[in-house]
Amino acid sequence: MAFRQALQLAACGLAGGSAAVLFSAVAVGKPRGGGDADARATEPPSWTGASRPGPSVWDSNWDRREPLSLVNLKKRNVESGEEELASRLDHYKAKATRHIFLIRHSQYHVDGSLEKDRTLTPLGREQAELTGLRLASLGLKFNKIVHSSMTRAVETTDIISKHLPGVSRISTDLLREGAPIEPDPPVSHWKPEAVQYYEDGARIEAAFRNYIHRADAKQEEDSYEIFICHANVIRYIVCRALQFPPEGWLRLSLNNGSITHLVIRPNGRVALRTLGDTGFMPPDKITRS
Fold first, then answer.
1. Is the pTM of this model over 0.90?
2. Residue 100 φ/ψ region, left for φ over 0, alpha for ψ in the -120 to 50 degree band, beta for the rest
3. How far is it, in rounded angstroms, from Cα 254 to Cα 230?
4. Between residues 48 and 218, which one has the greater pLDDT?
5. Beta-carbon contacts of residue 254 (< 8 Å; ≥ 6 apart)
6. pLDDT digits (tens, 9 = 90+) for 217-273
7. pLDDT digit string (tens) for 78-95?
8. Are strands 98-104 and 259-264 parallel, antiparallel or unpaired?
9. Which of 60, 84, 269, 275 has the greatest CB tally within 10 Å of its CB?
10. Cβ neighbours around 2 below 10 Å, total
11. Is residue 174 a contact partner of residue 153, using CB atoms and an 8 Å limit?
12. Listed residue (4, 226, 98) closest to 234, CA to CA
């Protein structure tokens, strides 16, 4: 009802020649509900100056690694009280920061009939060289490279690895390209079958849960990890990590060989340092195919 009244007021304002502001709210990181019990109060955007009732939309336990959620309070010794609880919480607290570098594969032959035939183009190999040089120039002690098992990602990894000697490599099917979730708004030129979202979405979500989280409590030093995969996977991961609506993944665009840098702090806060950076490539080497 409140939303209808806002629309009516806006319509009156427009008819009278005055400016109208329409308020909208997006439930970030929350499942879509089918009943009134799941409905959320409409909140005006922060720039209106209006108060935002209720708790923040940020879920501090998004990776299910918030210390308090890892303690079995039912087994808590009442006699030892808060001192024991604080000790147990400290045991589960992360101490290090994780730096996640998401690399999109380089340009490849899109007309290959089989996946194994979709190898990198000559330009794609140049792009991978430039990306490898850029990563090496950062002077970071990279801990590992995790890459998709698809041909174009493997070949991109082969080239980048030459510039990062000694960094271990891990191949995984979880990071293979796919359709993570039906995009909103939809696009006319790309409409996979519903079953593809169902199958790929579960796998890509599993990749997110498996690889994107705060550091383990046993990790003492900050880590720098590289993930070489695909545009759809990276865009979905970025939306999920920032707790943006995951359906908006297709609104992001990534160049071939680009670098996306996520930072996950010990308290679970996530920051996006760079998105799809290819500023280290000459303009004539940049593609998005």
1. no
2. beta
3. 9
4. 218
5. 104, 231, 234, 235, 260, 275, 276, 288
6. 999 999 999 999 999 999 999 999 999 999 999 999 999 999 999 999 999 999 999
7. 555 566 666 777 778 999
8. antiparallel
9. 275
10. 9
11. no
12. 226
**Within a 10 A sphere around the Cβ of 143, how many other Cβ atoms?**
16
Secondary structure percentages of the chain, helix, strand, coil, to 5: 35, 15, 50
Contact 219, 93 (CB under 8 A): no
Distant-in-sequence, close-in-space partners of 12: CB < 8 Å, separation ≥ 6: none
Are the beta carbons of 270 and 286 closer than 8 angstroms?
A: no
Q: What percent of the chain has pLDDT over 90?
A: 68
pLDDT tens figures, 175-195: 999 999 999 999 988 899 999
pLDDT higher than threshold 90 for residue 208: yes
Give me 208's structure tokens. Answer: 């997110």
CB-CB contact of 10 with 20 (8 Å): yes
Alpha-carbon distances of 135 from 101, 217, 280, rounded to whole Å: 9, 27, 10
* Six-digit token string for 141: 């002690």
Alpha-carbon distance 222 to 97, whole Å? 5
Integer Cα distance of 47 and 134 in angstroms: 38
For the chain, strand residue ranges (E) read 98-104, 144-148, 168-172, 223-229, 259-264, 270-277
Q: In 3D, which of 220, 230, 214, 219 has the Cα closest to residue 262?
A: 214
The kind and range of the H/E element at 203 are helix 194-211
Sheet holding 168-172, edge to edge: 168-172, 144-148, 223-229, 98-104, 259-264, 270-277
The per-residue pLDDT of the chain, averaged, comes to 84
